[in-house]
Design goal:
Pfam families: PepSY_TM (PF03929). It is built from 13 helices and eight strands. By secondary structure, the protein is of the alpha+beta class. An eight-stranded antiparallel beta sheet has the order 4-3-2-1-5-6-7-8, covered by helices on one side. Helix 1 crosses helix 5 (about 125-150) and helix 3 (about 50-65) runs antiparallel to helix 9.
Length: about 375
């Protein structure tokens, strides 16, 4: 038990700030569609094919070949997001009129906060660090629950420490942690699943083998002709709507290299994933449908994996679940920051070593 306590404290002291940052940015991002204040951001969704096709044609024409893809408006956010290069992009209303544009992610807070939360602003290396922090968070929840059990009789729930002394902070850390443990575990597990495949395979193993999930997620082997700048995207969208009636158009991705197809992701009503995993691949030259994947027909393990992001980012359950995950994020921020503070700046003073030599009076008497 002493070793477990030592590991818990040292790991928390080293990774606490990373977890605090993840908790705080996660709590902010849960509500990002609420605090992005732009014209038409709260417009109701116009999901009919003709309206979306007209906006797509307009945006492609005005983009001058710079548009790499479009993330279409959704029921919570009434603007299309255009991707026009590394760090650059634009928002447009559902009629295809631009309302904001940027050349760097630093011009849009929702973009750099998202990058900070997912990559620590450091690309794949930052994502790996976050994955390690996620594994540590899972360890903290499990080990913290074991360590809490010894002192369960002194449990007192507080949102803030009674005093800013080390004993009070440690007690607050222990008791707040046990209350929030289920949510913290859910946040850490779902986040780590999206980074480390072995973790995802472990979670989905009771439902499907790793090979089945990998095969279900892999893109089909299709070859497309060269991209046709005059391609009739309206016909392409109509084909997709006939293939999956009632599904929302979510992401249109244009080919980035020769031989790659146009990809269209859709979301069926039964899918939790906000951008859906129902996918169609079209020839970039002719618009012919090359392949289609129904997310609802995927193996159960793949469907379980597809719930990781919506559970992690509170994309299901409406406002009540967003508030619950906000509490989880704020709790992680408190626990992580206080763990670092008590470990590095509020460490207990070392007790003075007892002297084995007798006092001077005893020495004199002995002489």
């Amino acid at each position: 038990m002493r070793l477990l306590d030592l590991l818990h404290r040292w790991t928390g002291g080293l990774l606490g700030l990373v977890l605090a940052m993840l908790g705080l940015t996660g709590a902010i991002l849960v509500h990002r569609f609420t605090w992005i204040r732009l014209p038409h951001a709260q417009d109701p969704l116009a999901g009919d094919v003709e309206t979306i096709a007209a906006a797509t044609r307009k945006l492609m024409a005005e983009g001058g070949g710079k548009v790499d893809g479009i993330i279409y408006a959704n029921p919570d956010f009434g603007l299309h997001l255009l991707r026009t290069g590394e760090g650059s992009g634009a928002y447009a209303d559902q009629a295809g009129t631009l309302v904001a544009s940027w050349h760097s992610q630093w011009e849009r807070p929702e973009l750099w906060i998202f990058d900070l939360h997912h990559h620590l602003l450091a690309g794949d290396t930052g994502e790996t660090v976050i994955g390690i922090a996620g594994l540590a968070a899972i360890f903290f929840v499990v080990s913290g629950a074991i360590l809490w059990w010894r002192t369960r009789r002194t449990f007192k729930f507080r949102l803030w420490p009674a005093r800013m002394s080390r004993p009070a902070i440690v007690m607050h850390h222990r008791d707040l942690g046990i209350v929030m443990a289920p949510l913290l575990f859910l946040s850490a597990l779902t986040g780590t699943m999206m980074i480390f495949k072995p973790v995802a395979n472990l979670v989905t193993a009771p439902f499907s083998s790793a090979a089945e999930v990998r095969q279900a997620m892999a893109p089909p082997r299709v070859t497309s002709g060269p991209r046709n700048p005059d391609l009739d995207l309206t016909a392409l969208l109509r084909t997709a709507a006939r293939r999956f009636p009632g599904a929302e158009f979510r992401i249109l991705s244009l080919p980035s290299k020769p031989g790659a197809p146009i990809t269209l992701r859709m979301r069926q009503q039964a899918e939790w994933l906000p951008n859906g995993r129902t996918t169609l691949w079209f020839d970039a030259s002719t618009g012919q449908l090359l392949a289609a994947r129904d997310a609802l027909a995927m193996p159960m393990g793949a469907q379980v994996f597809n719930t990781a992001y919506p559970l992690h980012a509170a994309k299901v359950g409406g406002l009540p679940y967003r508030l619950v995950m906000t509490l989880s994020g704020l709790a992680m921020a408190l626990l992580g920051s206080f763990a670092v503070w008590t470990f590095w700046f509020k460490r207990p003073k070392k007790r003075a070593a007892r002297r084995n030599t007798p006092p001077p009076q005893q020495k004199a008497a002995a002489g």
